[in-house]
Amino acid sequence: MGDLPDRSAAFFEWYLAAVDAAELTDKRYPVKGMNVWTPYGFLARRQMDRILVEEIERSGARPVEFPALIPQTEFQKEKEHIKGFDAQVYWVTRGGATELDVPLVLRPTSETAMYPMFALWVRSHQDLPLTVYQIVNTFRYETKTTRPFLRVREIHFFEEHSCQTDAEAASARVDANLASFAAIARRLALPYLALRRPEWDKFPGAFYSVALDIPVGGARTLQIGSVHHYRENFSGPYGIRYEAADGSSRLVHQTTFGLSERLLGAVVAVHGDGRGVAFPSELAPYQVVIVPIPGRNGPDPVPWARTLADRLRARGLRVHMDGREERPGAKYYHWEARGVPLRLEVGGREATQATATAVDRHGNRSVAGPEGLEASVEEALRAFDRRLAERAQTAFREAFAPAASEADLVGSTRVRLFGWCGREACGHAVETAIDGALLGTLVGPPPGEGPAPVACLVCGATEEIRWAAAGRPL
Amino acid sequence: MGDLPDRSAAFFEWYLAAVDAAELTDKRYPVKGMNVWTPYGFLARRQMDRILVEEIERSGARPVEFPALIPQTEFQKEKEHIKGFDAQVYWVTRGGATELDVPLVLRPTSETAMYPMFALWVRSHQDLPLTVYQIVNTFRYETKTTRPFLRVREIHFFEEHSCQTDAEAASARVDANLASFAAIARRLALPYLALRRPEWDKFPGAFYSVALDIPVGGARTLQIGSVHHYRENFSGPYGIRYEAADGSSRLVHQTTFGLSERLLGAVVAVHGDGRGVAFPSELAPYQVVIVPIPGRNGPDPVPWARTLADRLRARGLRVHMDGREERPGAKYYHWEARGVPLRLEVGGREATQATATAVDRHGNRSVAGPEGLEASVEEALRAFDRRLAERAQTAFREAFAPAASEADLVGSTRVRLFGWCGREACGHAVETAIDGALLGTLVGPPPGEGPAPVACLVCGATEEIRWAAAGRPL
């Protein structure tokens, strides 16, 4: 055990080793930053997508899929947006031997694919809200260092787009998206901060952006999603208008909500340890692995192990029976690195008694059965999930510290919380001091206890002071 | 009703009108042949994918996902394959403002993306068979007329790839794929022919190809899938070798199995009628639509309609409650065009009696409840599926006719079945006569009755005569 690099000393080395040990992806594909989803990684992604689909459809969005290729002419209609993406899009310029008349962009995100169609779909206020989402891959010509799930060139992406009657309805959709994300994060046991980004760091084309950030050690943070209010910034250039109840023609107000495979990277980063990945049971490709332990005496445990697997599958659990010719210890190690929440050891005694010895990913042991065997296994999974969430919460709280002065920011090994007056000059002073970014103002209460800030950390102003956070985004 | 073009007189006009009336796709996207999956179309596709995943995973394949972009250097390793695809691939030549050193192909299919990795994954006979699949979009720069689901430039695609120890194991996988397809086709009520394509029409790079064809009126056929045996044609150039049990190093034998959104097009083509699309209940986005019919007297039917919807959903049925302010007749028309298998009409009488009047997509009426209400609805769905399958079988049998001479082929309005000696000259003579294609030799028995052929239709030879089919592929 424990041959992974030290997580706290060398986070990225540990992260890459944990992803490799779990065989979630294969980075040897001959285009750098485009990785292969292995069967095991794909099964985790399938569970992630299932959770997203459930929460998003519950909130009223309907699935669609738009083409991956966007004509240059559509792509360039919104000025800020194109400025934000121009340097990092892939261009399709040729079909067969033919130069295309209009080059096509491989979508880096789908505003410019969807909005020409929204202009056709939206006619009257009765068509609103229009709330659709898609789960597709997007493409970015990354020039920074790529890392599996965290920064890749082909991104497994979730995007919701809505058209609303006015700014207020759009703000309400932003809030609904934040509530959906809270439910998703709860199911993945991922504590996070929702932060309204400062003006200079919002999404290209947005009116305002709320980012979803998690701390990943030291002062480092990882943005795992975002929700944007676009007002009429896109509906203007794309002509998405509706006839209001009073007969007037108005532009829709738009919102978007984006998540990606970074969620999976966040699960690795937050729950992993020296043994490798640890999956919450909602996300685990296999929730239970059964390891039969043949002994010198006693009955063959394999038939009972098979029965056990069938009984648990009948309860809807994802169960893998590891029947390989390997030492049990090697199997334990194998499945711990792959993050399986619960292992059931089945030897001769367990076969005789119709029980199983349950060991969770953190090493907690219990015996399941013979009475209420399935219920005990389910309870062991729930107990594991509770402990996983508690650990994550503890680490989350410890990741933050208040800052009483700019000096506290310098060389900080925590994400810092403080009062901010909202002025850009003060924000940039914070960024210089921490050698990172002003992450924005908190949406919701701060993590941990403590009195609300009364003055700006930089200028000391006492008007309109809000909680802000600063750190070093990955 | 019946404002669609006449199906038998103008098949494509009818097909396009049926797809439009069902709102399965939006063809107005500004890249020709790249269409938008609307919410309703996407829900049908979701069911299609579910069926594919169930059958394919049952047959032992595991999910993966490979990148969409393939370096030119990998793409060009197998000579026949590149010849087959060179004229119809999209090329990515630029990232941001940078010309790429190695241009990238947007996958038209994934052999050349997967096989460099298979060469890393396969080491020993213990790694075999390697059987993986993915459901992704593929891209073809089509120059022919595009039609929704049938011929598009971005294709929703299923592809299984396997590596086997030898030719025999690969043939067995081909057979397993054909068995999986039989199960898929049964669930979609789609009768089909499996045909081993002649040498001159096999997949670029294949040793042999079995195509899955359906008749779609007249002598026209639609290929909805294919299974290929590659032998060592790809493993050679890509160096996919394994150490056999005897220590020798051998090339794997490979197979592939491909399906696409054409399956959905086939469902429209085969089951649709003058009222529009008709979905088998497995594929239907909504299996049951409930239409409340408010009357002048009697209780408000809406509360009962809602209860009914909840009760049916609790049985796992996909139910839509149509609560719009519209005439009931307009709603009937709306959902018939969209292919919903079963409509439940709920008026005051039904609300009082806790029943529902069930009308299936073909107009068959029954009353469900009050006793065994859910079971009656399920039985009405099963009865609809049976009749849908019977109709399709009848039309399938009528689509074929034997040919006793080349003259029978000329201007044929049926797909023709006949004996063929296997010689290319005779095959081409058939193609000239029917002004179409020799579809290949039958895998399995022919549709309908009749004695086995004893002589080649063209040359009269009596050795190695096999059933062959000829028609006009779309």
Can you offer a commentary on this structure?
Two copies of one chain form a homodimer. The radius of gyration of chain A is 25 Å and the shape is globular. The first copy, chain A, is 33% helix and 28% strand. Chain A is built from 14 helices and 25 strands. Chain A folds into three domains: 11-271, 2-Layer Sandwich (BirA Bifunctional Protein, domain 2), CATH 3.30.930; 286-387, Anticodon-binding domain (Rossmann fold, 3-Layer(aba) Sandwich), CATH 3.40.50; 400-473, Translation Initiation Factor IF3 (2-Layer Sandwich). Chain A has helices at residues 11-21, 39-58, 72-75, 79-85, 111-121, 167-187, 235-238, 262-271, 302-314, 328-337, 348-353, 373-398, 406-409, 424-434, and strands at 25-26, 36-37, 62-63, 69-71, 90-95, 98-106, 130-139, 154-164, 193-196, 208-215, 220-231, 241-243, 249-251, 253-260, 277-278, 288-292, 319-321, 338-339, 342-346, 356-360, 365-368, 400-402, 415-420, 437-442, 466-473. The interface between A and B is large, with 52 and 53 residues. Strand 5 (90-95) of chain A pairs antiparallel with strand 5 of chain B, so a sheet runs across the interface.
